[in-house]
Amino acid sequence: MADVAERAGVSTSTVSRTLRGLTTVSPDVRARVEQAARELNFAVSRQAASLVTGKTGTVAVLVPTLNAWFMGSALSSLAPVLRAAGMELTVYVIPDLAARDSFFDRLPARRNADALLVFSFDLTAEETDRLDTLGMPVIYVSQHVDGRPSVYVDDVAGALHGTRHLLNLGHRRIAFIKTVGASGFSFSSNERLVGYQQALTEAGIPLDDGLVAALPVRDDRATAEALGKLLSLREPPTAVFAEQDEVAVAVIRALRRTHIEVPAQMSVLGFDDQPVADWFDLSTIAQSPSDIGREAGRLALSLIDDSEADHKQHIVLPTHLIPRATTAPAPHGERDTEGELPRA
Asked: pTM to 2 decimals?
């Protein structure tokens, strides 16, 4: 910094103020300092600055995977929010049990970040308590955690509205396909099932566990097997609500292979509004991971800047129905004159 100051003809404190982006430096002086820094290949040391400010200028993110549409969209909108505030982003990917044990044993984010964002990560109570010892704001994203700051969509309301859409089209046998064992997403999965069940109860339709299919692996064979169980019921469904768009698309492919027309014979509804939903003209419940990422970044910055801020606040974002070509009125003849389904 002293070398930059000598070349620019200013004091080291002026160099410091300039490179920290403070507005107390004139445009002419700023230009000279920045030019001198470029000529000397000077870069601000985050480690050295943290000794003075007590802050690292970094926000850490903990994710179970990067191979997901949600993660990519959320992180893509989070990064610019942090960058505009002069903050850097560090991502910890925990894809398996070994990496998980290592992270919680060492807690590498300690002293290396000013806040930690936990994205769609299923934690045990012990792991949550361990993160509480970090001494920094820990924000939970795409999940609700009692007593901790959280940013998520209202999955229950989204699934409730989606199921109502199918009910309003005359469907009374509505299947729900959920994923099990998918890394990090059980909170949303469970909440969407609750919304589906609430809508059926509200409509006076008894819950039928036989209409809820679990998908342990998201591939064509597993989807075909889950769909086969539903189609072999004495009273098969006339509509399928899949908890994710990717699952809904796999269901549509499986139905086409068996020459069951969508939506003439079977309506299919997804959740997320991923790009693939538009490609398949899939009816879905839309959420915005970009909005989630931005809100999570803003919340992290506010908690870093203000130690008196509410560290238990929850930001809940809405979802909305996008009706497209894969949902239609229940097939003709499915209901009797009183609106009830006939016995098989």
From this structure: 0.82
